[in-house]
Write a structure and sequence with these properties.
336 residues; alpha+beta; 2 domains; 8 helices
């Protein structure tokens, strides 16, 4: 849902980000941040984006300029002032993923008009495996106290420095840029959940017209979101396109929500929203119907997304990309 064209426009040579980087900004950790202008394209390579499949890594561009040995692909697309769940991957120059048990993450704020970065936070990110296979990302929580988007109206910027050591003792250091908005594009914690009207079993005799799941669970399509919000029960809603998700985690994510549903269906409502209209109508391997209106109503730039809504209709927790069932259930138990 982010296009490479949008990203390239935002990091053009005339942009404040490019101007900052051309001055040779360095973080206080003494690591160079001159490669952020190259790595910022990784913001478009959201691992599960259905609109723009990751066709190439930033590695070729980095090589052209004698770039870094390791690069970070920021998977999280929706960063804003406040507390954020942040996920990212690390790749080497050959595009091969780096997998360690954990990595240290420093958030660095680059103020406008200043030739140095300010280290704001140091945290540990742990590797979280994605189904199927051995793929996965590092996940941590970061607090951003200021917006930073490298635009004329918001000229500050954020960078992340990642440090880890492989099992063979190789030290890996990589940096990436991070755009932090004043407000989240998706509903924030404590915000009212949008009262979206979503398809249910009463709208069709064939669930394949409202879900691309291989075997849709009818329980997940009993209520529209607006109806569920009127029941006075907590709600778990997952937005995903199981058949068309680039990272192949959308199907497993919907299944895990179904597993949590089996344990708590008397206490909460559970809904799956397919992000494509008429997912059964396919041309060239892709649905022809475009996005459902709910995608825009919830401000999503990627998928899957999973939200836990309390009995008052307020967002209690939200998770971008794949999230284990244990974390979904833990968030739900906090409000049951």
């Amino acid at each position: 849902m982010l296009s490479m064209m949008q990203i390239s426009q935002e990091v053009s040579v005339e942009s404040p980000l490019a101007q900052l980087l051309q001055r040779g900004i360095h973080a206080q950790s003494s690591q160079s941040w001159r490669w952020l202008v190259i790595l910022v394209v990784s913001l478009a390579l959201v691992a599960c984006s259905t609109a723009v499949p990751p066709q190439e890594s930033p590695t070729p561009a980095a090589r052209q300029f004698g770039g870094p040995e390791y690069s970070v692909i920021l998977v999280t697309s929706d960063l804003a002032v406040g507390t954020n769940r942040v996920s990212f991957g690390i790749i080497d120059r050959d595009g091969m993923p780096v997998r360690t048990k954990e990595a240290q993450v420093q958030s660095v704020y680059l103020p406008p008009g200043v030739d140095g970065g300010e280290i704001r936070q140091t945290v540990t990110a742990r590797f979280q495996q994605w189904p199927p296979g051995e793929r996965g990302v590092y996940v941590t929580t970061l607090d951003f106290d200021l917006p930073g988007e490298a635009t004329e109206s918001n000229p500050g910027f954020w960078g992340l420095e990642i440090n880890t050591t492989t099992d063979s003792g190789v030290v890996v250091v990589a940096q990436t840029a991070a755009r932090v908005a004043e407000h989240s594009s998706t509903p924030g914690i404590g915000d009212p959940a949008p009262r979206s009207v979503t398809p249910t079993v009463r709208d069709t005799d064939d669930l394949s017209t409202i879900s691309s799941s291989g075997v849709p669970d009818p329980d997940l399509y009993q209520l529209s979101i607006d109806q569920a919000l009127d029941t006075g029960k907590p709600l778990v809603v997952v937005f995903a396109s199981p058949a068309f998700c680039v990272s192949a985690t959308c199907g497993p994510q919907v299944e895990l929500v179904g597993q949590v549903k089996e344990r708590h269906q008397d206490e909460a409502n559970f809904i799956h929203v397919e992000v494509f209209k008429n997912p059964h109508l396919i041309e060239g391997g892709r649905p022809t119907g475009g996005w459902v209106p709910t995608v825009d109503e919830w401000g999503m730039l990627s998928e899957p997304w999973t939200f836990v809504i309390d009995e008052k209709g307020l967002v209690h927790a939200k998770f971008e990309q794949f999230i284990p069932a244990e974390e979904i259930e833990a968030a739900l138990l906090e409000i049951l």
